[in-house]
Structure prediction request, 201 residues.
Amino acid sequence: MASLPPPWDANAYTSGDVTIHPGAAVASGALLRADPDSRIVIGSGACIGMGAILHAHQGTLEVGSGASLGAGVLVVGRGKIGADACVGTATTLLNPDIAPGQVVPPNSLVGQAGRSAEAFPTAAAQPYVVPAAPAPRDPNQALAAGFDPPVQAALPEPQGGIVQNGQPPVAGKAYLERLRLSLFPHNAPLQNPDSATGGGA
Prediction:
């Protein structure tokens, strides 16, 4: 029995024998596909995240009541995700067998992939050779080649400061105001026209 996508989200897609409990939440972009002779059952209060893909293959794929599947989760095969289980975002489950209340961290790969690591031939281990560090560059060679190193401009010394214990003087309010006006002349305060002409009211 195929059901239509839940009415609260027309962007979720179902295909094949998919049963979604009315109390379940299926987010936008979720894809629920059951192959022939397979089915998907979503329990009450289950939450299927945005962009999650559930593909039932060769059996029943069941999501228990209250289970939560994060965004971008991929579930393929047959199996069960237990009640109140939490599957983190971007996780892949192959033929899942997730216990009730179990938490699966994000970006996990869980399940039997169909091949073992021994099925792939491995090359003989080659020793890793650390490359030699490059020789340090001589700054005199750069000068001989016509390269001028960058010159740091000295900051103007504040006027009227007293040098104590070899420390530079602290810039005062007048110095900072002159610096502000030289950097941002457009923010200079407007002069009162009466004070500029010497006239008054």
